[in-house]
Structure prediction request, 213 residues.
Amino acid sequence: MAERRGITLAVTGAGGTRMARFVLEALVKDDRVGRIDLMVSQAGRKLVAYETGRDASGDAAELVLGARPAVDKVVEWDPEDLNGGPTSGSYPTWGMLVVPCALGVVGRVANGTANTLIERAADVTLKERRPLVLCVRETPFNLIHLRNLTQVAEAGGVVYPMIPTFYNLPQTVDQFYEEFTARLLAFIGLPQTDYYTYSGAESPAHHDRAGLR
Prediction:
């Protein structure tokens, strides 16, 4: 059996924090993932609370998921603690996802200015040549944003905007979240389902949701 991955997941202060719930749920359920290092920024906590109505002061995993994880694989880190394990390149992890990723975080990562554990972990991920995937949620981009995003990409990171697809004819908002999560995890080598794999007009999602039997 292949070694189970450790993956770092950060949630920052950008709209669309519900996407983090879908991603975290999928990682928790995936047997290929052995540990999830979870960090939720202070701004991220406020946005999760705003978008869900939950108490921002609780445990990070419970705040994001709305309940305690079903399995004990989530390790929570204080984003203000710059002594946390993810500050070091010797800390074992496959890579890092930031979902959603605020453009202020992008700017600090792009310029090597780490004020929090999240930004330091991203910096370490780049220096160790590990995958760093930033799921930004903002539009339109100004020139500063574009330059920072380019700089991150040049340093080895991946800019993966939270943009939904439409070929699967989504009928609910949750289907946007499901599709993005499936594509994101497939992108990092953890395919969840082939349901969202495009194969033309015969794609299962297209037929099921358009009523084309």
